[in-house]
Design goal:
Layout (H helix, E strand, L loop, with lengths): L12 H12 L3 H8 L3 H8 L7 H11 L3 H6 L3 H12 L11 H7 L1 H30 L1 H26 L5 H33 L9 H11 L13 H9 L4 H20 L2 H11 L3 H8 L3 H9 L7 E6 L4 E5 L17 H6 L6 E7 L5 E12 L9 E11 L8 E4 L25
Helix pairs in contact: 2-3, 2-4, 6-8, 7-8, 9-10, 11-13, 12-13, 14-15, 15-16
Length: 436
């Protein structure tokens, strides 16, 4: 191994030397003379065709007024990684990746601006997704807007009567004026309450839960999606106390049901048993389920709720409604229903007891690859005379690259915020796609 080589992803020393010389306004001949070499040899060094080592590197550093370490170590690789990410986010405009070091070295300020803009764009995309879900599904917001629109309509109709009718009986005119005053007061109170609600949401430590399911998932997220107390029945009492402290009665009910199921599954498949089975069979939930003699969905939930597990999990019922969502970075999950119909989760829903797997490319400014494993189980709680209840789960494993000869399926989150163009499954126009 060449110990003089720069760290992986760093700018080469020659590029550093060239950019430092240009920033000082020096000619190659001047720097070469100061370092005791020819201008042609310096040109080879600056284009990384010759290495500057030892005393020569020290003389060049002295002429350029920098530390030797600055030239030998180069710039950090994080900037180059961010630039590659920026290039991958716009595949229709291929960037010159072979000149990325030259660009970062010559224009480090612009490179930093570009990567910061990319990060800001990603943040704004997440804000748009959150606001879209909130506007669409937040019951308090919906009720407040409905109340304001009702008051506006009432004010408008009353004002129209007063303006267009000249000979109104004084008694009726007084009633209309009173109605106009009351509706105006109602409109003002509603507007103030709405503004206070929206302003207050920005200062909350956690985003306002719009549903009991979301409240429960916020509690799990605060625990990093792992409940260590489940491995000890005595410790489970502490979890029950925490669930009893959730804000809404519906969330407490969901939490109690979740804990009952999770405690039973932890007893049927302890973490130590799960880890041993995965070490032998890998991360295939069907193989783990076969070895441990438990249902596949039990394995999926236990795998997703392991400590530090970098795996996402989505569960739904027969209607397609999402019952549980453990997110994984790069795969955006809608907060309520209306998920992408191309998910393997919904394919499995129509094929009970049949495993479905696929390599997915999740939409976004920087598309990410995932291995999805989906499975559906059915049960008859009331026997043959009752309805069949189905539940499907989908595990999401991040991938660095697609397996060889594996067809990649492009998917999104929900149609409204999906950036996929010409999608055959699109239900409605996207608010993030430019039109015209």
């Amino acid at each position: 191994m060449d110990k003089s080589a720069p760290p992986a992803g760093a700018l080469l020393p020659g590029t550093q030397i060239r950019e430092r010389r240009l920033s000082l306004g020096l000619r190659q001949a001047e720097v070469a003379a100061g370092a005791g070499i020819s201008a042609s040899y310096l040109n080879l060094i600056e284009h990384n065709r010759r290495k500057a080592q030892g005393d020569l590197l020290g003389r060049l550093a002295q002429v350029l007024g920098v530390d030797v370490a600055t030239l030998s170590e180069g710039a950090g690789g994080q900037l180059l990684d961010d630039l590659r990410t920026a290039a991958a986010s716009v595949p229709t405009m291929p960037a010159e990746l072979d000149r990325i070091e030259d660009f970062a070295g010559r224009f480090p300020g612009w490179a930093a601006v570009l990567t910061a803009t990319l990060a800001r764009a990603g943040q704004l995309e997440r804000v748009v997704a959150a606001l879209n879900d909130r506007i669409t599904h937040d019951p308090h917001l919906s009720a407040s807007l409905h109340e304001m629109l009702s008051a506006v309509s009432s004010v408008r109709s009353t004002a129209a009567i007063l303006a267009e009718t000249e000979d109104i009986d004084p008694v009726w005119r007084g009633r209309f004026h009173r109605n106009l005053h009351e509706d105006s007061e109602r409109l003002a109170v509603g507007a103030e309450a709405l503004v206070a609600y929206l302003d207050g949401s920005e200062s909350r430590e956690t985003e306002q839960a719009a549903a009991p399911q979301e409240e429960l998932e916020n509690w799990l997220a605060a625990r990093d999606w792992h409940l260590a107390e489940l491995e000890d029945r005595a410790g489970a009492l502490h979890l029950q106390t925490e669930v009893a402290g959730l804000a809404s009665a519906a969330a407490r009910s969901l939490g109690a049901a979740f804990l009952t199921q999770a405690m039973a599954e932890a007893e049927a498949l302890p973490l130590a048993t799960l880890a041993a089975a995965m070490a032998e069979t890998g991360s295939d939930p069907a193989l783990v389920a076969q070895k441990c003699r438990v249902p596949v969905l039990v394995v999926m939930r236990r795998m997703a709720l392991q400590p530090g597990a970098r795996v996402g999990l989505v569960c739904c019922d027969a209607s397609g409604t999402l019952l549980f969502r453990k997110p994984v970075e790069g795969f955006v999950l809608p907060r309520f229903g209306a998920a992408c119909p191309l998910w393997p989760l919904f394919t499995a829903l129509g094929r009970p007891m049949t495993p479905v797997s696929a390599t997915l490319e999740a939409s976004g400014r920087v598309p990410r690859l995932f291995r999805a494993m989906a499975y559906c189980e059915s049960r008859l709680p009331l026997g043959f005379g009752g309805p069949e209840l189905r539940e499907a789960g989908m595990l999401l494993f991040p991938l660095d690259q697609a397996p060889d000869h594996d067809q990649v399926r492009a998917v999104g989150s929900s149609c409204r915020i999906c950036s996929r163009r010409n999608c055959p499954a699109r239900r409605e126009p996207s608010i993030v796609l430019q039109t015209g």
